[in-house]
Amino acid sequence: MSDFPSLAGQLLLAMPGIGDPRFDHAVIAMCAHDEQGALGIGIGDTLEGVGLHALMQQLDIDPGAVADAPVHIGGPVEMQRGFVLHSLDWAGEDTLKVQPTWGLTSTLDVLRAIAAGEGPRDWLVALGYAGWSAGQLDDEMCRHGWFSAPASEALLFRTGPRQRWRAAFEGVGIDPALLAAGAGTA
């Protein structure tokens, strides 16, 4: 890994003009970042017409009394693969604990626990992920495109998906309306 500190546990925010429409106003909850590469789950947008109940029914899980919820666009990689970001009051056998704010589980046990009313207090479901090969994200962080910001339970679980980008910038004292779409030259 380069001199860049690990971004696991942070939010990665796409800057205006990032150049890739898949990441326009993206908010990515970074779950892993080390010398092997990086993995994050997009939490800034949801899939149209796909809710938690429909997803659970496709997986033969009775949703029980859990309220229907949107399913997030986790990223452009493996859109058929599901992930649940959740509070740390629940952990399954394969839960990755992302300190200090959340866990990441990609096995069906978390959906079954949520449906049974025995799952984590806070959670969100996503399909797909954003991934970077070894050193790739570090290189991207040195160029115009990404900004890291602290994550919080409020941003993850109590802020609407389309409000997270603005709220994350404002949380560190940046007015996103003042961000430029390109880098300057001297």
Automatic annotation (TrEMBL):
Transmembrane segments: none annotated. It holds the Pfam family DUF179. It comes from the Bacteria. InterPro entries: AlgH-like (IPR003774). SUPFAM superfamilies: VC0467-like. Belongs to the UPF0301 (AlgH) family. HAMAP family: UPF0301 (MF_00758). PANTHER family: UNCHARACTERIZED PROTEIN YQGE, UPF0301 PROTEIN YQGE. This is UPF0301 protein PQ455_03980.
